[in-house]
Each structure stands twice: as structure tokens, then as C-alpha cells.
Amino acid sequence: MITLKYEWEHDYVAAMMEEDDAELRDLISSAESAIENRLEILKNDHPTPEEVEAIVIALAGLEKLRLQKLGEGRTRIV
């Protein structure tokens, strides 16, 4: 069982564990959107260094997954 610390990690883990390439694009987009929403909230809050690091790692992982599995780069900037 995976213990998640942040709400946005649910979408991230779902994308990282998906094996069906047909579903992967949507799951990656959902994870990126969840992270973008969290970043918007953090603009008015005081993020912990741990969450900032987790976000950076997650975005890098999603980008790598997008490149390796779908053969495409990121189309938007957070």
C-alpha cells in the first residue's frame, strides 16, 4: 500500500502506474492539472520545502513518462 502525503499525489500515482497507453495521456494531464491547482493555492500560502521538492520530482517524472511512453514533450508550462 502506498501512503500519500499530498492530495495531488493521487493523480500522479495513477498516471505513473497506468499501463494502458490509451489512458495515459489523460492521466498525465489530470496529474499536471492537479499539480497546477496546488501551485495556485501555494501562491497565497507558505509551502513546505518538502512539498515543493515533491512537486518538482513529480513534474519531472510526468515529463519523462510522457516522453518515453507517448513520444511527446510537454505542451504547457506550469
Residue fraction in strands: under 5%
Helix content: 55-70%
Q: Note the run of SSEs as H and E.
A: HHH
Q: Could you say how many structural domains there are in total?
A: 1
Unreliable residue stretches:
none
Overall average residue pLDDT: 91
H/I helix tally: 3
Which structural class fits the helix and strand makeup? mainly alpha
* Net shape: globular
- What does the main sheet amount to? none
Q: What is the terminal separation in angstroms?
A: 30 Å
Count of beta strands: 0
Backbone CA Rg: 12 Å
Features:
single chain, about 80 residues, 3 helices
Summarize the structure in short.
The protein is mainly alpha-helical and 78 residues long.
What this model shows, in words?
By secondary structure, the protein is mainly alpha-helical. The protein has one domain (9-70). The protein has 3 helices and no strands. It has helices at residues 9-17, 21-42, 49-70. The longest helix has 22 residues, at 21-42. It is globular, with a radius of gyration of 12 Å.
